[in-house]
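**User:**
Everyone, produce one record:

**Assistant:**
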Amino acid sequence: MAKLVLAGKANCPYYARAELLADYLQANLPDFRVHKITQHPDKWEQWLHDICEVNGWEHRGSPIIWRELLDRGGKGLLLGGVNDFLEYAQHYYGITSMMSSEEMLDIAEENLQARIEIEKEEEEIKSLIKPLQIWITSASASICYQLIPLLANGEVFGMTTEISIHLLDTDQFKDILCGIVMEAEDMAFPLLHSISVHTEIDEAFIQADIIIVLDDVLLNHEVQSLENYIREVSEICQVYAPLIEKNAKSGVRVISSGKTFVNLKAMMIMTYGKSIKPENVIAVATSWESAAKAMLARKLNMNAAGVKDVIVWGNISGCNYIDLSHAKLYGYDCAIWGPANFPRPLLNMIYDSEWIHSEFLSAQSSLSSRVCHCVGMLPAHAVATVLRYWYHGSPPGEIVSVGILTKGQFCVPEGIVFSMPVRFQNGNWEVMTELEINETTQEVLGCLAHELIQEKLIALKEIKEMHPYGADKITSKKYLCQGICFEQHSFKSKAFRTVS
């Protein structure tokens, strides 16, 4: 009996050709057996190196084919690559492959998708054995109370992924945390493997897969200056970042949320945690995005779920800009009819342009006030939505606003956390740099960057106080624009706490 082992990269067209020929031989020859091994392209080189090292072979490229000599204890006899296999089949069986290049590529693409699905299923099975470890800081906040059911009901991570939630706060809030734990256990979520209370900072973030940072500061300018609050945020991040590096998993994902200094918290965690991957740290802007959509929906007398692609630029919990230039409406009842997935440009549907330039812009400060005074339902939903998108992908074509570490996209200065449009797919996010922005928006982005640069410099103690836009020489000309001014929002929220 002839038993061949056929191994290759999942997206390799030559593997596809050899695979189809092997399948034909197995179906038509009673004593021919084939065992197929596909590897993800990212893992192929290491797998090939290991198998060749074990068997003493020399082979490069995909596929690799060997014959298992069953009558000699299963020792493998290397045949080689696809050409060697074609010669083998022609010589022994008088059969060869006539597959076209187009067919090879099609099958290779199918193989890759099948491999991705198999790996996804394997990860889901593993997740049942090892629950996802989620840590929440300042867990006595109302946001956390609203967030736990959203995380535990299966909608965020999937109905096959168990989670363990760790609530971190100071000892003075221990009773509140214990009450939250009891309620969560009483609800008996099938996917909630465990929920625990932590008040010792040294045990923070152990084996964390996800960290949700909810710490806030109380902004009251009569008590102390804005600069002192920025330094407080920097100090708590200086405590958190080394602990994340030390205790959390290497691929930990960090989400900055809350009501104040959302961008700055993400920025300083990356600054003080050099080994934390920048692509794994984001700031949530979805609360502001959702509130803006709701305001527009009320003006248009429609469901807010039909308002899409509103962009939040800049400092999420500070000076930001709500961009409607790409916004679309779905399911809007107007003179133009179309299918449910037929979009209409929002700005074309609001005939009262004066409302956009006056009421809507002036309402942004009250918008921020509403977001910051909410009891927790909106920001909790925002965190859960972003996590779901991060793990399962955002709706195709839909814009999501997220604060990320800039790399010069849209001419925004590098090295600050700036909210901009992204898409989520395959467990990662990608900035939608293909979007076109006009000169006015580009100038606004320069103004918004100024505030974030100032916050960063104060947090790093490179300057002592905030400088009005255009009144200092810290930023270069590329940061500057003319005639745009935004008000610094004031927030009142629960006091920021250093866990000790």
